[in-house]
Specification:
Blueprint (H helix, E strand, L loop, with lengths): L2 H6 L6 E10 L2 E11 L4 E5 L6 H8 L7 E6 L2 E2 L5 H7 L1 E4 L11 H8 L7 H7 L16 H13 L5 E5 L7 H7 L1 H10 L2 E5 L3 H7 L2 E6 L2 E7 H6 L1 H8 L23
Parallel strand pairs: 3-8, 3-9, 6-7, 7-8
Antiparallel strand pairs: 1-2, 1-4, 4-5, 9-10
Helix pairs in contact: 4-6
């Protein structure tokens, strides 16, 4: 864990989710989700396709109404707060698929998203220098990597207290992903932002994260410090498959019994 993140864990959580259940048309997709992200901390949300990762992020961001449980941001209950008010309170979501406007330029995207106390253009381009050459280019003409940088940049200009990122690497070549993911670490370190991100590239995710949670069939089956989970890949593999796990990376931080973790 970085120094900033270690200090942050002693303060109030930027995000505190307890017993969350949510889904669609009255049927839960996620159940009993509990997780925490501190200011300046980077936390990965891992798991196979269909595990409920996107539903978790979208529920936190106010796009789905919780069926049970609580969601707190900086000590305030936000479970029933509309998405636009959450944005004003400091929550930013980078959705899967980026949700850009193809006809608008990079500069126009950033200008529309900027808030009064947001990140200035010079500061933003220092973190995302590849956007500098694209400012006058329409989003629809950008490469996949440039579009993803724009999606992140659009979220950052509001200087969020909590940043949620869904599948930053979607559709991108691994070499591009290796350049993009470390940006999340810079955001946490330089802005003090709490970052919760969904990622399929497990190895890369654990390299930049402080901690990680693994979801299977809508439940958290494993959690712990990223460095310990990285050292025990068999444990993660078993969690992805939804199998019983006979040991844990860290008995004090792994959810469930140390003898068995099930989905």
């Amino acid at each position: 864990m970085t120094t900033a993140a270690a200090t942050a864990t002693a303060t109030a959580a930027a995000l505190d989710v307890d017993g969350l259940a949510a889904g669609y048309f009255g049927s839960p997709v996620i159940r009993d989700i509990s997780l925490r992200v501190a200011p300046g901390e980077v936390v990965a949300l891992l798991g196979p396709n269909g595990a409920g990762k996107t539903t978790t992020l979208e529920t936190i961001a106010g796009l789905h109404k919780p069926m049970a449980g609580t969601i707190s941001m900086l000590g305030s209950d936000i479970a029933d707060r509309p998405t636009h008010l959450l944005a004003r309170s400091g929550l930013a979501l980078v959705p899967e698929g980026r949700a850009l406007f193809p006809g608008l330029t990079v500069h126009e995207h950033l200008r529309l998203a900027r808030s009064k106390d947001g990140v200035g253009q010079r500061e933003l381009l220092a973190m995302l220098p590849e956007l500098d050459k694209c400012l006058d280019r329409r989003a629809g003409l950008l490469s996949g990597g440039e579009q993803q940088m724009l999606a992140v940049g659009r979220a950052l200009v509001s200087r969020p207290r909590l940043l949620l990122v869904d599948e930053m690497s979607l559709g991108l070549a691994p070499v591009i992903v290796e350049r993009l993911l470390p940006i999340l670490r810079r955001v946490a370190t330089e802005l003090g932002t709490a970052v919760l991100f969904v990622e399929q590239h497990v190895t890369l995710a654990l390299e930049i994260a402080d901690r990680a949670y693994v979801l299977t069939h809508g439940r958290i089956v494993l959690e712990g410090p990223a460095e310990q989970l990285q050292a025990d890949r068999k444990l993660i593999a078993a969690s992805y498959l939804g199998e019983a796990v006979a040991r844990s990376a860290d008995p004090t931080t792994t959810k469930g019994s140390t003898d068995e973790i099930t989905s």
